[in-house]
Structures are given as structure tokens and as C-alpha cells.
Amino acid sequence: MSVRVPDSATVAEAAKFLGSGGLVVLPTETVYGLAADAANEMAVRSIFIAKGRPSDNPVIVHCRDLAHAQAVSGLWPPGALELAKRFWPGPLTLVVPRSNVTAPACSAGLDTVALRVPAHTVFQQVLRASGLALAAPSANVSGRPSPTRAADAAADLGDSILILDGGPCAVGLESSVVGWPDGRPTLLRQGGVPVRDLEAIVGPLANAAPGDRPLAPGMKYRHYAPATPLRVVAAAALRSLWEVERRRSTRTAWLVSTESGLRGPDVTVIASRHDAAGWARRLFAALRDADAGGYDTLVVEAIPEAGLGAAVMERLRKAASS
Ligand code: TXA
Ligand code: MG
Fold this sequence. Notes:
four-stranded parallel beta sheet
């Protein structure tokens, strides 16, 4: 079994393995990451192979602290330092000019590099034990929901890879990604830091233009998609849909709020509809569990788009699109 308790021996083993070009799955506070030495071109390329990730989709480089992040990148744009000081370690990624310290594969041909200082103790221990910067996309097979439990990473990537089990992820959604594509601070991906909190530091964020050349290349690929067809339904329409579905022979899984009042063997109550952080924390695991349950359809209740609710709803809309 490759899923291991992260004690000092396994942390040392993971660090050594990474230093020799290997891949290791590590917990972060957002989602589990598939890590490799960010300075080792072949190691980073092997991440793309393991995930089935398109080669034009760059990966995030994880650093132990702010000084380390600055040492592996070029000159930062105005506002980047303020964001890093406020939100690192934590669920924020900054896209800044690259330097030659990181392997070209991390940037997938772009002249920028995405940087993050993760908060999870186990990831920090491995960063410090290895002394490396670690390239790490989410540890799922491309197109599957990001793993928020060690077992989810194992289900996607197989038993042969070393996985340090740091427990369920506290945030449960990927990091927010901010870049400066035209000099203005721009939201490239919604995530673990609510937009309002980012804007309190740098002012209004421009929005990455949708289209076929999105600024975060990952956003053009279908993401977070369960194999079972998924519908997002307004809270007000849930009860009548429930009555209709009950009279049909198809099997439906329901992912709903406490307030919905729905209960039953096919119902997963995620959290209060006003607890967006609770939804963020449990959503991907619930999607994976429901997807594995042999249902014909998944119905997920829409929640208010306040705070993390906006990022939760963005993930749900993507999971629902076909
Ligand atoms: O929370 C997270 O961000 C997790 C954990 C493991 O840190 N990582 C993660 O990585 O979600 P990934 O590869 O699944 O998503 C990274 C996103 C992608 O949409 C990618 O296109 C974008 O960041 N990205 C990476 N480098 C970029 C760059 N240089 N310019 C623009 N977007 C970039
Ligand atoms: Mg991902």
C-alpha cells in the first residue's frame, strides 16, 4: 500500500525520492498535489504523463516561504508582494515573471511561473527536508475532481506512487490564481481566497476574458467532471424536482443543504447553505462518492454566491457542463 502516515521517516523518504526525480503525492490545505522537483525538467514532465495532462497547461510551483518564492522567479509586479504577505502560507497562487531556476515544463512555454506557499504542515516539512521548490498540480487524473482525501489520489493515480496521508483537506477547493497579464491584477481562477478579500489588498481585479485562449490555460479544459450527469438546481425548485424524481425508476443522488429538508439513503447533506466554507471542504469528496454510487444522475443544490460560494458555484457549473 502506497498511502502512508507522514511521520519523520516517511517525510525524509519523500524528500529523498523527490530529490532524485521521483513523484510524490502530498497534502495541501486546498487539495492533494502531485509533486516533483520544480528544477528538474524530466521530473516535471513525468507529472504531465502521470496525470494525462495536456502539455500546454502549466503547473504551480510550491515554495517554503515568501523569500524562497522570490528567489525562484523574476521581478514581481506591483501588488504581488502585498498579496503574498497577506495570504501566504495559504490558498493563493501568484503568476509572476519566470526565471531560469524553474524547469521550462513548469511554465509550459509561457514566460511566467505560478507560485504558491502552501500552509499544510506535511507539505511544509517536505519542502524544508528537500530544500526544493516543488511543482505540483492537483493529484487527480485530468478531468476528474481534485482529490481532497489521500484515497481519492490513490484511486486516480494508482498504488505504485508514494502518497503521504495528511487527512482531509481543510479548504477543499484549489487556490485562487491571480496574474498580471496586461499589467493589471487579474483573477485567473476563483479559489480558496474569496475575491472580496483579494480586492481588499489590490483593489478591483480584472476578470480573465473567457474564450479559446484563456489566461490560465487550465481553464479551457473540462474540469471537476463526474462521470454521472450532474444538474445544479435552485433551492426553490428542489422539492418539486424531488417529488417528480421519486415517481421515476431512475436513481438520483442528491447533494443538498441542511435547509433543504431532504433526507434519505440517496441524500448527502453537505452543510448549511450559508456555510460556503463547509460546501468547499466537502464538495469534491461528495461528488466522487456519489459518482461511485452507480447513480443515473446527480442533483446538486445551488448555494448563494457570497464569499467562497462563488468558487463553489463556478466548480459546479463546470461539473454540470457537457
Ligand atoms: O490549490 C492548488 O492550487 C492546488 C494545490 C496542489 O496547490 N494545485 C492546483 O494545480 O490546483 P492545477 O495544476 O490543478 O491548477 C493550476 C492552475 C491551472 O488552471 C493552470 O493553467 C494555472 O493554474 N497556471 C499555472 N501556471 C500558470 C501560468 N504561468 N500562467 C497562467 N496560469 C497558470
Ligand atoms: Mg487541477
